[in-house]
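To whoever picks this up:

The parser on our side crashed when reading a file containing two proteins. I've narrowed it down to the boundary between the first structure block and the second sequence. Both blocks are reproduced below exactly, byte for byte. First block:
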Amino acid sequence: MNASKVTQKLHWDELILAALREDIPWEDVSANAVVPEGVRGHADLIAKADGVVAGLPVFGRTFELLDETAVIVFHVGEGASVKAGDLLAEVTGDMRAILSAERTALNFLQRMSGIATYTRQTAELLEGTNTVLLDTRKTTPLLRTFEKYAVTVGGGRNHRFNLSDGVLLKDNHIGAAGGVKNAIERARAYAPFVRKIEIEVETVEELKEALDAGADIVMLDNMKGAALEEAVRLAKGRAKTEISGNVTRENVKKYVSLGVDYISSGALTHSAPILDVSLKHLTSVG
């Protein structure tokens, strides 16, 4: 586990607990009504669709936070490709806790696995190139740490995690500063010298102004056809290039031949369908 994932995990428990509190504000009436206190149970986690699994540690931790005696045995690893019907894990613990944590645990796993699956399918279209697939900040509020982690499991890379991570000057920043040059100059004067300056441009004219002002990275936003090709040619050797704007799994391949450094896609997190999984065969044990 690298340092960034360690940092992410520091925040996981509080987010999982918040999700559990949302689902169990004071008690699970159904579980407490039908299961005597102290009964231990066992259940199987089953894949119901083909895809890439991400979020197994979050899935397991959800049960552990309700039941410190819970034991989760995983039969696949994080990032594994699975088929419908595969046994992914077994959960053993207090039966009430298993019932109470089930939906929250599955919600996390389904969402994260869906993102990893969509990301893997998109990243595979860039194989053999030097173009890096990036996510964006178009994430579910409060769940960004899980969703961006899932992108990395699927083979993508993270763009900035939050507004404190780096300088990215978009159209409204440019408007507020009074132009591309002003925005870059003000950012260069304000930001720590180790920060790279990235700026969004929508036309070749804006690109030229950004390059002359010394931008480190230019985001070619929603540029098409000949204008996009010219922009990539002009920026080569002067700044890193990033294509952005409505990039999806379905259209990413058309950008491959351009030789850009990065392609960012909000669809990785905002449009990935869930990967269907289910907790089945709950029985009492011991």
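<<boundary where parser fails>>
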Amino acid sequence: MKKITRILAIALTLVLVFSLASCAKVAQGSIRTGTWSENTFTNEWINIKVTLPDGWRALTAEELQQSVGAGEEIIVNNGTNQAALDVAKMRTAYDFSVMAEVGVPNAMLMYENLALSPLTKNLDESGYFDSMKTQFEAMADLGYSVLESDETVIAGEKYFVGKLSLMDGAAYQNYYFRKFDGAMIGVILTFTADTQADAESFISSITKAK
């Protein structure tokens, strides 16, 4: 449990930065979360379906809450005001957090409602990622650096991809963004050099729900 919590705390640190990229408290709006049936997740709103690979599992609510708390501690220790973080959390919906048996790769699906976010609601996916860069730079003690950006297709839809290294190259994160229906969809993938192929296989396995 401690190992899982630490890995996901690191991953959630930038997930929390993701939700800090804009500045307004927003309502749930049109966001609709998905459902699990055994090891298959479906969200018809964003039209995706995920069947977990062998050895992967979804985190329990308790494990995710522990990881969110650890991630918050990291980001507050790096200078983020707790009040600003609390507001950001009210804008953000987590849909799943899944991981391989050893902790990496792991992936999270989340949304930020942009309807009342004046600084970011008119940005495209690339601009949204650019708006996060100053927050990344504030995470200096975790060894974050932005590597490159790209585009890919997930379940038939085009996603912007922002790629980062963390802990001075000990691990990596890819941020897959798509703006849809007043929200920013984010799939955050954390992996190591040794598990990159498994991470990419997970992304490519995501299909349309309908």
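After patching the parser it read the second block fine. The chain has one domain: 2-204. The chain has five helices and ten strands.
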